[in-house]
């Protein structure tokens, strides 16, 4: 359905697989040097991370739990990107979206989770959408740059939540700025409950049903972007606004709607974090997922499949890092942040660093394979 | 209209400045250059002609280091060289002037010339040295350029000189010019040719890509013809003529366009009254345009670029809102309450092939079939409910490509990999296949090769004969005279005259383009036509 | 679709190379020996305040017994539960959870592992295998409030709290009672650094608040604000005013300017909990450590000896004795539902 090469002659498989693998490899090499510098054995440390992230059911469950939130925010960033918008506000949209989800869970005490879930999803999406739509409107109709406004909306979200959790929503007599716990009936089934239903016993793990919701969203976004009229219009606006105008596409509405959808997707983080795991509205529950979502979307090249995969990678980094600091007293959790940062740097910001070299290296082969195709 | 430039004596057979031997280049399935061999004499002007997509630009890009050949050798002054990037080419004394200028608009001419060749950390010394050197070059080649003016304030002709000067300042002995005349007005072309002549006289070598055979005859010493990636013919310019070149280019004898009158025109399909556009500063850019286009009629709009023709197309297609006037299509008043938008215009049966097709009419990174849908994404035949049926779109695109001879015939190929002419055919096909009542078309053959020009002209005439109304804006007077049944001439935003095709002469149109309307006979005729509307 | 499949293959390749990292994990399974674990909250074990106090206590235990422990620092909310559970699965004999934020996580994990002992510091979880340790901050604050009033010449004293939560209100309320006990007409100016956890680590804002209080006549200020308090102490030093430190003994930071510190012996609590678990004397339930239990107090050392006159010391000692034997009541903000006394 699309060309097998890019304009610089690099075959698609190299762009999609080899280049990310090289970037990841470079990131691991640099991370190893850092671990070596603090006097630890990088190989066994990395082995621990991998084992911790995917080597056990428990580890995998945490990895998938982190990946769930990242899928939501990665999709959010990607869909805005397809419309030519750099949405840095996933963090704030997730935060406010979580408020919507949380309020529904608080209000619908006693309802069974499967009736709460649709309402909570709607509320989370709606709250997140509003938080994305306003910067979208300001960009489309007032020319305020989306990067600036979405950053500002992150701060506004934070201020709003601090106010609500410190005052109106705080559980009486409680130190922590958190709401009361949701009624148990509203909890989203997690691995333990699902496994119990199938006759297995597991310990309590954060992975819950919202992973399926995230995958559904990924499929939905894929369909929306590439197989609907609206997705086509959105991509046109993102790629060439003059052509969009020529094609009779209303760029302004498209931008506002794209930001609303983007915000709605980010807003679903709360389904995983709050209805799924925390079971109360807590301060900063989104914990940087919105920002990591930018790296996820970059690394996933804006394609839902890529986003799901890079979410898994970043989820594994989070969980592997947690295991690493469990095993090594000397390795601080900050180091894990360093490793994550290096991965983001290589696969996001320096995405094209190895590209020219790769183009040169693969050139004879690319030409030969093209000849093969013709023959 | 033949050789109007005094030429220096063609150079004696001398050494080769540049030799390309067996250059081969592929972009995926596109075989852009097929074992191309080409030799250019030092101190000569060598023309390179060919249809769009014949591989001229690729070849020059390889010489300048933008691409590397898959196979083949490059020799400069007899020695084999490797050119990996433009820096290597510059070091070898090869300079290039692109069709789209690579200047920093906010910098002055001098600053642009110095870019990348600042000569030390302290700007002051560099500026002094640069000024002295540039002034010397200006004098030697009669390149008149205001060094301290901002580039944004200069017209294209001067900007092009800045580009040439930039290449010379970097020590270019060999100069590649990619369609240098495409953006120039006729007097500017004359100036350019004088400069090229002076360069040749001083022993510099020039490689010029062009579509205009007249220019080849006027200025070059030798000419090579590319077709489908291969060199099919090379001539000494004095031994050939335009017809022979055209034949080599298209592989058959091209018929010069001859006007083919259609059947008598029918009812007016497009009626425009008092149409005005004011820009954001309140300047009236289009002044009370009033005319009609009848069924089965092509109305050409002639004028020097920037005299309101573009605004006229923009207003009628809904790209730019107009502030005054009324528009009727097929007898129905379609003047919108709020500013008309292009979707609305399309629904009223107005199709539009914009002048700036690369920027507006296609989204380059999209595969061709997606661009074949652009503007018609609401067509229910191409969707099942909310889902766009890309299979159906691709199939329709394949038919369109067949019908419009778009090459290569690959609906899923990225649009940017098609040549300009093939992109244009895709756009024309898209707009004309939908059977609109009115077709607005701007510069339909700009940057398009001869074979495609002929093809496009035939399709426009066929559409006219099918009883449609066509409004044609073109910078090529010949094209307007060959296709139009009536000609509107614009100057300074106003329609200064309207001529029947059989009355139109180049001289008459030229005077109207210059705003000279004292010719009572033609003036009154235009008034009569306006009054009748 | 083919594009999606290719992308999937690419990722599979990526993940599979991650699997083949050589070297195997050194086994650190459950050991027969006594094994304590601790989970610190945000801020980490070197926060120069509350968390670090706990670390001091465990380090002391480690020095005395040679027994190793496992200390973990969280970087997101979910890790509280994850680490508590991991320690429990590793067979820790006692698990310390530092900070009130860990209460929900402790409640959950303690239920799953009823045979393992949990000690929650600064929060309450009522389960048969959880020991909750609280401090009577109001009692220590009462004493430093008295000292502030005794030292003030302007009859205006200040209070800078960290995050605006009931715990800090408890400090403030005790302080206020102490001041009023000495000089009922003295004026108290109180500010909070903020309403989020970030308020614990903003010394700049702490210093600004202190300066503005000095401008309004304050000459003694009590900082109950974690790291932000360092800014308060610094500002007092710069302005030639008195300050009062918190949690650990901060008298040495600016000798001659820090009047005293309201010490909260988190280290002692942590040490005692682990020690008791080892001895077999550990007991579940809520324990409140006040003046009597030496859980809170005021610091007097060579750094502030010159600032505290014998009369002042006598007054504070007398009040301390009365509080301990119950003849003097200090209201607890949480119990009185607001600062009522």
TrEMBL record, chain A:
Pfam families for this protein: BPD_transp_2
Topology with respect to the bilayer: Multi-pass membrane protein
An annotated Gene Ontology molecular function: transmembrane transporter activity
GO cellular component, as recorded: plasma membrane
InterPro entries: ABC_transp_permease (IPR001851)
Keyword Iron-sulfur: no
Coiled coil start-end: none
Transmembrane segments: 12-39, 59-80, 117-134, 146-165, 207-228, 249-269, 281-298, 305-322, 334-354
Primary subcellular site in the record, as a coarse category: membrane
Subcellular location, record wording: Cell membrane
Keyword annotations from UniProtKB, A to Z: Cell membrane, Membrane, Transmembrane, Transmembrane helix
UniProt name for this protein: Nucleoside ABC transporter membrane protein
Species for this entry: Nitrospirillum amazonense
UniProtKB/TrEMBL annotation, chain B:
PROSITE patterns reported in the protein's UniProt record: ABC_TRANSPORTER_1 (PS00211), ABC_TRANSPORTER_2 (PS50893)
Pfam families: ABC_tran
ABC transporter domain span: 18-253, 270-517
Gene3D superfamilies: P-loop containing nucleotide triphosphate hydrolases
GO cellular component, as recorded: plasma membrane
Membrane topology: Peripheral membrane protein
Main location as per UniProt: membrane
UniProtKB keywords: ATP-binding, Cell membrane, Membrane, Nucleotide-binding, Repeat, Sugar transport, Translocase, Transport
Localization in the cell: Cell membrane
InterPro entries, per the entry: AAA+_ATPase, ABC_carbohydrate_import_ATPase, ABC_transporter-like_ATP-bd, ABC_transporter-like_CS, P-loop_NTPase
GO molecular function, one term: ATP hydrolysis activity
PANTHER family: CARBOHYDRATE TRANSPORT ATP-BINDING PROTEIN MG119-RELATED, GUANOSINE IMPORT ATP-BINDING PROTEIN NUPO
Protein name as it appears in the record: Nucleoside ABC transporter ATP-binding protein
Automatic annotation (TrEMBL), chain C:
Stretch forming the signal peptide: 1-27
Main location: membrane
Listed InterPro entries: BMP_lipoprotein (IPR050957), Peripla_BP_I (IPR028082), PnrA-like (IPR003760)
Compartments reported by the entry: Cell membrane
Residues of the ABC transporter substrate-binding protein PnrA-like domain: 38-314
DNA-binding listed as a keyword: no
Keywords: Cell membrane, Lipoprotein, Membrane, Signal
GO CC terms, sorted: plasma membrane
Keyword rRNA-binding: no
Domain of life: Bacteria
Bilayer topology annotation: Lipid-anchor
Family statement: Belongs to the BMP lipoprotein family.
Protein name per its UniProtKB record: Nucleoside-binding protein
Source organism (scientific name): Nitrospirillum amazonense
Organism lineage string: Bacteria, Pseudomonadati, Pseudomonadota, Alphaproteobacteria, Rhodospirillales
């Amino acid at each position: 359905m699309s060309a097998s090469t890019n304009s610089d002659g690099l075959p698609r498989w190299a762009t999609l697989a080899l280049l990310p693998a090289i970037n990841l490899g470079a990131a691991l090499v640099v991370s190893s040097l850092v671990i070596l510098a603090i006097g630890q054995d990088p190989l066994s440390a990395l082995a621990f991370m991998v084992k911790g992230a995917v080597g056990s059911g428990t580890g995998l469950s945490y990895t998938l739990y982190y990946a769930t939130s990242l899928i939501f925010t990665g999709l959010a960033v990607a869909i805005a990107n397809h419309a030519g918008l750099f949405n840095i506000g996933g963090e704030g949209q997730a935060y406010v979206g979580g408020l919507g989800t949380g309020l529904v869970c608080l209000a619908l005490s006693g309802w069974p989770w499967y009736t709460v879930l649709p309402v909570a999803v709607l509320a989370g999406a709606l709250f997140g959408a509003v938080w994305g739509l306003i910067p979208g409107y300001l960009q489309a109709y007032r020319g305020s740059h989306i990067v600036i406004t979405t950053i500002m909306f992150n701060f506004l979200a934070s201020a709003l939540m601090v106010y609500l959790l410190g005052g109106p929503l705080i559980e009486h007599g409680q130190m922590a700025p958190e709401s009361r716990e949701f009624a148990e009936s509203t909890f989203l089934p997690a691995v333990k409950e699902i496994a119990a239903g199938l006759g297995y016993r597991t310990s309590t793990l954060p992975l819950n049903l919202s992973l399926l919701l995230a995958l559904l969203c990924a499929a939905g976004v894929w369909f929306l972007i590439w197989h609907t009229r609206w997705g086509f219009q959105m991509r046109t606006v993102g790629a060439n606004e003059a052509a969009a105008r020529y094609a009779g596409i209303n760029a302004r509405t498209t931008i506002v709607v794209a930001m609303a959808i983007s915000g709605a997707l980010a807003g679903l983080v709360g389904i995983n974090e709050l209805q799924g795991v925390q079971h109360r509205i807590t301060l900063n529950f989104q914990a940087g997922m919105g920002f990591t979502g930018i790296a996820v979307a970059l690394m996933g090249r804006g394609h839902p499949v890529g986003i799901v995969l890079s979410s898994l990678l970043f989820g594994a980094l989070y969980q592997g890092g947690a295991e690493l600091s469990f095993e090594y007293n000397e390795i601080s959790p900050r180091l894990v942040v360093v490793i994550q940062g290096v991965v983001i740097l290589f696969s996001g910001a320096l995405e094209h660093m190895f590209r020219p070299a790769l183009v040169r290296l693969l050139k004879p082969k690319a030409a030969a394979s093209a000849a093969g195709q013709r023959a | 209209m033949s050789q109007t430039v005094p030429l220096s004596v063609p150079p004696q057979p001398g050494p080769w400045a540049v030799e390309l031997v067996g250059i081969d280049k592929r972009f995926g399935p596109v075989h852009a250059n097929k074992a191309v061999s080409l030799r250019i004499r030092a101190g000569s002007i060598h023309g390179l002609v060919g249809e769009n997509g014949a591989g001229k630009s690729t070849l020059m890009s390889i010489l300048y280091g933008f691409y590397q050949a898959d196979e083949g050798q490059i020799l400069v002054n007899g020695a084999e060289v490797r050119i990996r990037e433009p820096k290597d080419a510059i070091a070898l004394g090869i300079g290039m002037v692109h069709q789209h200028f690579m200047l920093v608009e906010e910098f002055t001419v001098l600053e642009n010339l110095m870019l990348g060749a600042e000569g030390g950390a302290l700007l002051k010394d560099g500026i002094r040295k640069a000024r002295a050197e540039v002034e010397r070059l200006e004098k030697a080649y009669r390149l008149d350029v205001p060094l301290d003016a901002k580039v944004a304030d200069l017209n294209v002709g001067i900007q092009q000189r800045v580009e040439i000067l930039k290449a010379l300042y970097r020590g270019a002995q060999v100069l590649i010019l990619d369609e240098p005349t495409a953006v120039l007005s006729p007097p500017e072309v004359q100036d350019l040719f004088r400069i090229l002549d002076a360069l040749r006289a001083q022993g510099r070598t020039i490689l010029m890509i062009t579509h205009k055979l007249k220019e080849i005859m006027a200025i070059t010493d030798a000419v090579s013809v590319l077709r489908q990636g291969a060199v099919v013919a090379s001539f000494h310019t004095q031994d050939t003529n335009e017809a022979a070149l055209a034949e080599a280019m298209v592989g058959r004898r091209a018929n010069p366009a001859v006007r083919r009158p259609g059947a008598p025109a029918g009812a007016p399909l497009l009626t425009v009254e008092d149409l005005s556009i004011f820009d954001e500063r309140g300047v009236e850019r289009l002044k009370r345009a009033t005319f009609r286009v009848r069924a089965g009629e092509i109305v050409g709009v002639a004028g020097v670029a920037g005299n309101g023709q573009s605004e006229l197309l923009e207003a009628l297609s809904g790209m730019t809102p107009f502030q005054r006037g009324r528009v009727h299509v097929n007898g129905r008043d379609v003047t919108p309450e709020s500013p008309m938008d292009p979707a609305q215009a399309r629904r009223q049966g107005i199709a539009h092939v914009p002048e700036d097709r690369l920027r507006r009419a296609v989204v380059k990174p999209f595969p061709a079939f997606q661009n074949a849908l652009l503007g018609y994404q609401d067509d229910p035949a191409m969707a099942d409910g909310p889902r766009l049926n890309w299979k159906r779109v691709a199939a329709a695109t394949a038919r369109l490509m067949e019908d419009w001879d778009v090459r290569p015939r690959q609906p899923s190929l990225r649009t940017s990999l098609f040549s300009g002419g093939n992109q244009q055919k895709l756009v024309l096909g898209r707009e004309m296949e939908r059977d609109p009542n009115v077709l607005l078309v701007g510069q339909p053959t700009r940057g398009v090769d001869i074979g495609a020009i002929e093809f496009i002209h035939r399709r426009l005439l066929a559409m006219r004969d099918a009883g449609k109304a066509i409004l044609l804006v073109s910078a090529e007077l010949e094209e307007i005279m060959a296709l139009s049944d009536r000609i509107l001439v614009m100057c300074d935003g106003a329609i200064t005259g309207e001529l029947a095709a059989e009355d139109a002469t180049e001289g008459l149109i030229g005077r109207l383009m210059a705003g000279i309307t004292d010719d009572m006979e033609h003036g009154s005729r235009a008034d009569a036509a306006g009054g009748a509307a | 679709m083919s594009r999606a499949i290719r992308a999937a293959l690419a990722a599979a390749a990526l993940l599979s190379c991650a699997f083949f990292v050589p070297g195997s994990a050194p086994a650190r399974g459950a050991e027969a020996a006594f094994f304590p674990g601790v989970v610190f909250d945000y801020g980490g074990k070197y926060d120069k305040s509350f968390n670090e106090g706990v670390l001091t206590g465990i380090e002391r235990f480690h020095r005395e017994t040679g027994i190793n422990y496992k200390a973990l620092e969280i970087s997101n909310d979910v890790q509280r539960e994850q680490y508590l559970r991991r320690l429990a699965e590793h067979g820790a004999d006692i698990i310390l959870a530092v900070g009130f934020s860990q209460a929900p996580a402790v409640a959950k994990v303690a239920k799953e592992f009823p045979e393992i002992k949990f000690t929650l510091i600064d929060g309450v979880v009522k389960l048969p295998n959880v020991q909750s340790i609280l401090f009577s901050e109001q009692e220590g604050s009462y004493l430093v409030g008295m000292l502030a009033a005794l030292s003030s010449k302007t009859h205006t004293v200040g209070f800078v709290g960290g995050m605006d939560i009931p715990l800090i209100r408890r400090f403030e309320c005790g302080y206020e009672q102490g001041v009023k006990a000495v000089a009922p007409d003295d004026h108290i100016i109180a500010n909070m650094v903020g309403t989020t956890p970030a308020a614990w680590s903003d010394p700049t804002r702490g210093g600004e608040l202190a300066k503005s209080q000095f401008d309004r006549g304050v000459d003694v200020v009590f900082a109950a604000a974690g790291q932000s308090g360092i800014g308060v102490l610094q500002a007092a030093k710069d302005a030639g005013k008195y300050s009062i430190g918190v949690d650990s003994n901060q008298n040495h930071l600016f000798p001659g300017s820090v009047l005293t510190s309201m010490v909260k012996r988190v280290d002692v609590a942590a040490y005692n909990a682990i020690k008791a678990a080892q001895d077999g004397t550990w007991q579940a339930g809520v324990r409140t450590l006040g003046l009597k239990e030496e859980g809170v107090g005021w610091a007097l050392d060579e750094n502030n000896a010159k600032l505290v006159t014998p009369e002042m010391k006598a007054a504070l000692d007398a009040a301390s004795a009365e509080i301990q034997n119950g003849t003097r009541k200090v209201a607890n903000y949480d119990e009185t539902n607001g600062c009522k006394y």
